[in-house]
Each structure stands twice: as structure tokens, then as C-alpha cells.
Design goal:
Pfam families: Peripla_BP_2. This is Putative periplasmic substrate-binding transport protein. The chain is of the alpha/beta class. Helix 2 crosses helix 9, helix 9 packs antiparallel against helix 10 and helix 16 runs antiparallel to helix 17. The protein starts with a helix and ends with a strand.
């Protein structure tokens, strides 16, 4: 009897363990009898998505987010990205060069096309057999129909899609997106360490701003992609516009644009007469675009900003007359680095209150703590 009871107890324990793991969805049986761990997450579109855990094969849309993945997963990410779009190479070439120097195999990652120019190929993605495709909330705003169609076709093919957001609501959703990436990469603690560093710096800015009862400076921010002859887009209460607002500035474009992004007219800008102008730069190929990033010097940035300041009518704007024109790296708008932009903006808007804050030292420390590549170049710039 004792032997029977012992045998029964063992069988009961085994049955309970099997039931718990099966019901939780943590373990599924593969076709060869192998067991694969999975995790179910809620992405930044509010979708419940189940993916292999940790993911080993990633197709990354907006491939400049390699930097966020690398901060969380380190050098291992070079082996995990099996496909991406042209964003990193064509629009953030300074970062691309930096990472390819460190991890040459990234130069051979296949390009699956982009949603925003109708070159995205579901067939190429399927052929790469990824564990997950990482997309972004902004793709619904800029290329909604293409994004919806791609999502349907990928789901039909059994390929999970996880959405992150570093753009639509950057100061709120960037940390949530990092924690989400930490979940699917199996690096939750590392992601939390990054978020803790982020929150420490953001909270320090917010606590000082809460004590400020003075007038907010009026601010105009423009993407310096087109060159000085054509006005670039600015934002309402989204992306750069939302960061201006969080840093205590009065964004002159918000009443006109709401939650959208587009260029405003020169007449509107001159009539608004902002106190501060911020121009964004990157390693773009457009002639006359503002040069900033890992591979740019302060002289490169100055030389390209000069032509913007020389635009007709800009000599009448308070920001120019009072020598308050600045440059910021465009990639900081839609990346975890936005906390550094917040520090820079607060310092430019309220120089006395933030005179002891050094955004350059902050981003250097972030690189030393979390990034596999060294910091260098020009990411923040004061023209005068």
C-alpha cells in the first residue's frame, strides 16, 4: 500500500507540473519533440503577442533601433538581426558606420524594404524565418494601409509582430518599449537598468521644471533634412514637439498642427517670432542638410546651420537676434536617447536653472554603461 501511495503521489506531482507549464503557454512542443520557451507580451499597440523566448532571429523595421537592441543585448544582437530596412544605412549612416566597424557581419544583413516607400517584401521576411518582426507605432500614422496589410500577411504566415514606440509619445513610451524589448530578448534586468538610468535623469529635469513659475520660451524646431531652400517638417504635440513641451517650452507649431507633423510656412514662423530655434541634424545625404552625429564635427554642424540662419526674414526673428539657435541630433527624437534631448532643451530654455547640467556628459556616461560602441562626434550644438 505504501509503495502504491508513493507511486500515486509521484504521478500526481508530475501531472500538476505538466498541467501548470502547459496551461501557462510557457512551453510548446516543436515538430521534432523539442521544447521551445515562449513569452506572451502586450506591445505598444496594445496587442497580445506570443513569441519565442528569447528571440534569436529578428527582422527589424526602422533599423536604427539596432542601437536600442544593442544596449539591451550587447554584442549578441549582431547575430540576431537577420533582416532589416534601409533606415540605419541611409538615414543614420554615422551610426551604421560605427556599428559595422564593430560588427562587420551587419553589413551583410538583408534589406527587406520599407513600409513608408512601398518596398517592404513580406516574401523576403518569410524566407528569413524570423522569430519576430519589430515594427513601430508611427508606421500606422505615416503608412497606415501598408502597415495593416503587412501585419495581416505576416500573421497569416505565423510570424509574430511586436510594435514599439519611441516617436508618437517618446517621453512616456520609450521606457515601456525598452522593457518590452527586454522581455522578448530575455534581458529584463538589463532593460530595467537602462530605464532606471533614464528615469533618474528625466526626473531630475521634471523636478526642477516643477519649481519654475516663469513664462515659457516660445520654440520652433525644424528637421534639417531638406537643406535651407525648403522648410523641413516640424511637429505639433508629437515627437520633437512633445519633448519641447516636456522640457518647458511653448511649441509654436502645436496650435497649428495638433498631433501631426508637417512643414509650416515661413510667414507663420516669422509672425510667431520664437525665442528659440532648434534645428535637427543627422548624417543625411541631402545637399545642404544639417550634419550631426558620430562622424560629424562641430565645424560641420556650424557650416550647415549657417545657411539656415541666412534664410530670408530670419534676421528679424528673436531667436536669431538674441543668438539662441541650437542643433540636436535628429535620431534623439525617436530613440531611448530622448532623455538627453530633454536635458539639452531644458538647459537651452532655462540656462540659469540648469547651468550645472551637462547633457554631453550624460550621453557619454550612457555609452560607457550600456553601449558596445564608443561615444564621439557632435550630437548637441549651440551656434553662438
Amino acid at each position: 500500500m505504501r509503495d502504491r501511495l508513493t507511486t500515486f503521489s509521484i504521478l500526481a506531482v508530475v501531472l500538476v507540473i505538466f498541467t501548470v507549464f502547459t496551461a501557462s503557454g510557457c512551453v510548446t512542443k516543436g515538430g521534432t519533440g523539442d521544447q521551445t520557451n515562449t513569452v506572451t507580451v502586450t506591445d505598444m499597440q496594445g496587442r497580445s503577442v506570443t513569441v519565442k523566448a528569447p528571440v534569436e532571429r529578428i527582422v527589424l523595421m526602422e533599423s536604427s533601433k539596432t542601437q536600442e537592441l544593442a544596449a539591451i543585448d550587447g554584442k549578441a544582437i549582431a547575430d540576431k538581426i537577420v533582416g532589416w530596412d534601409n533606415d540605419f544605412k541611409d538615414y543614420a549612416g554615422d551610426g551604421y558606420v560605427k556599428f559595422v566597424e564593430k560588427y562587420p557581419k551587419l553589413a551583410d544583413v538583408p534589406n527587406v524594404g520599407s513600409l513608408d516607400d512601398s518596398t517592404f517584401s513580406v516574401e523576403k521576411v518569410i524566407a528569413l524565418n524570423p522569430d519576430v518582426v519589430i515594427m513601430h507605432n508611427w508606421e500606422f500614422m505615416w503608412c497606415g494601409d501598408a502597415t495593416k496589410e503587412a501585419l495581416i500577411r505576416l500573421e497569416q504566415a505565423g510570424i509574430p509582430v511586436v510594435f514599439v514606440d519611441f516617436y508618437m509619445d517618446p517621453m512616456t513610451n520609450s521606457t515601456k518599449s525598452m522593457l518590452l524589448l527586454g522581455q522578448i530578448l530575455g534581458k529584463e534586468q538589463r532593460a530595467k537598468d537602462i530605464v532606471d538610468f533614464y528615469d533618474q535623469h528625466v526626473d531630475a529635469v521634471y523636478s526642477r521644471l516643477a519649481k519654475n513659475a516663469g513664462l515659457k520660451p516660445s520654440v520652433y524646431i525644424e528637421t534639417g533634412y531638406n537643406g535651407p531652400e525648403t522648410y523641413g517638417i516640424t511637429e505639433g504635440d508629437v515627437a520633437w514637439g512633445s519633448i519641447v513641451k516636456k522640457a518647458g517650452g511653448d511649441n509654436i507649431a502645436e496650435p497649428l498642427l495638433g498631433n501631426t507633423s508637417k512643414a509650416i510656412s515661413p510667414e507663420y514662423l516669422i509672425n510667431q517670432n520664437p525665442n528659440i530655434i532648434i534645428l535637427t541634424g543627422r548624417n543625411w545625404s541631402t545637399p545642404g542638410s544639417i550634419r550631426m552625429g558620430y562622424t560629424s564635427t562641430a565645424a560641420d554642424t556650424r557650416n550647415t546651420i549657417d545657411a539656415y540662419i541666412a534664410r530670408p526674414g530670419w534676421d528679424t526673428i528673436n531667436a536669431v537676434k538674441n543668438r539662441k539657435v541650437y542643433g540636436i541630433y535628429h535620431g534623439y527624437c525617436f530613440s531611448i536617447y530622448n532623455f538627453v534631448a530633454l536635458e539639452a532643451f531644458a538647459k537651452w530654455f532655462y540656462p540659469e536653472e540648469f547651468k550645472d547640467i551637462d547633457p554631453d556628459a550624460t550621453i557619454r556616461e550612457y555609452h560607457e554603461k550600456f553601449m558596445p560602441v564608443e561615444y564621439g562626434g557632435t550630437f548637441m550644438y549651440s551656434h553662438y
